[in-house]
Amino acid sequence: xxxxxxxxxxxxxxxxxxxxxxxxxxxxxxxxxxxxxxxxxxxxxxxxxxxxxxxxxxxxxxxxxxxxxxxxxxxxxxxxxxxxxxxxxxxxxxxxxxxxxxxxxxxxxxxxxxxxxxxxxxxxxxxxxxxxxxxxxxxxxxxxxxxxxxxxxxxxxxxxxxxxxxxxx
Length: 169
Ligand SMILES: [Ca+2]
Ligand SMILES: [Ca+2]
Ligand SMILES: [Ca+2]
Description:
Shape: rod-shaped
Strand content: 25-35%
Largest sheet: 5 strands, antiparallel
Order of helices and strands: EEEEEEEE
Number of domains: 2
Structural class: mainly beta
Bound molecules: calcium ion
């Protein structure tokens, strides 16, 4: 005797804790099954999963077959969820994290003359050693300006002097 239904889906879930079905679960794959399954037979399924950005930590992996309960199984629904034998350790995606620093400008500027403003940009991201760039990009510009009265970026008194593109050499 085969399953009375020939289509269902298997759900793959990652969970921060070791319990399936609570709020920290999130689905990473829903794999459709087409074709009735005879008693005593089985099938193997797989999913290639894109892990969401920002995810890190140790996870339990669960699969729930017949995730939407398409197949009536009488009293035999309780074995449809199964955890993986091992946990899944996910390390954080290596991000670039540019940070500005060492901003240097002269104390006095005169309208009509140029002032030189320099700064340093560091990538403070979580690179592994192989990916870490050897040098730090450095910026610099010459422009003419009036004095910047306050030390708050992004408020109404800012004057944009220049946007300086950076490119690899
Ligand atoms: Ca859980
Ligand atoms: Ca079922
Ligand atoms: Ca079952």
